[in-house]
Amino acid sequence: MAKKTHKTAHVLRLIADISDTKKENPIINAEFKDEIILKRNIIREEIIEAPTVKAVEINIISEIVSENLPSIIERFKCCGCEKCIARMTVEALNHFPAQYVFPGENSEEEIDTIKQKYRPAVLSLLVRLALKHKSSPIHK
Ligand SMILES: [Zn+2]
C-alpha cells in the first residue's frame, strides 16, 4: 500500500512538472489553443453548412413548367411576354401540389422518374392554359 502511494506521488510530481513547463510558455499555448478553436469552428461550420446544401429542394412541377412552357407558347402562338408567362406559370403551379425532390438525397434517376410521372399531366394543363390565354389575353 505504502509503495503504491509513493508511486502515485511520483506520477503526480511528474504531471506537476509538465504543467509547470507549459506555464513557462503561456503565449505559445494561448496561440496554440486559439488555432485549435479556430480549426474546430471551421469544422463545425462545414458540418452545419452540409445539410443546408442538401436541403435545397426543387419543385418538380415548377421544373416541368419552366422547361416546357416556352415551346408550348411558341407552338400555340400565344403571347410570350413576361406577364403572360408569369400568369400561366402561377396557374399551372396552383393546379398541382408541389412535388419536392432533394438533389442531395434523391439520385438523378429518381428525380427523372418523378419528372416522367408528372410530365404528361403538366404538359396537358399547359396546353389548356395556352389555348385559354390565346382566346382571352390578359392585356391589349
Ligand atoms: Zn402577354
How is this structure best described in words?
- The protein is an all-alpha fold.
- It has 2 domains: 2-54; 58-135, no CATH class.
- Helices cover 79% and strands 3% of the residues.
- Strands 1-2 form a two-stranded antiparallel sheet.
- It is elongated and about 95 Å long.
- The chain starts with a helix and ends in a 5-residue tail after the last helix.
- The model has no long low-confidence stretch (mean pLDDT 79).
- Zinc ion binds at residues 79, 81, 83-84, 139.
Q: How helical, in percent, are the residues?
A: over 70%
Which small compounds were modeled alongside the protein?
Answer: zinc ion
Task: Please give the order of strands in the largest beta sheet.
Answer: 1-2
**What's the total helix number?**
5
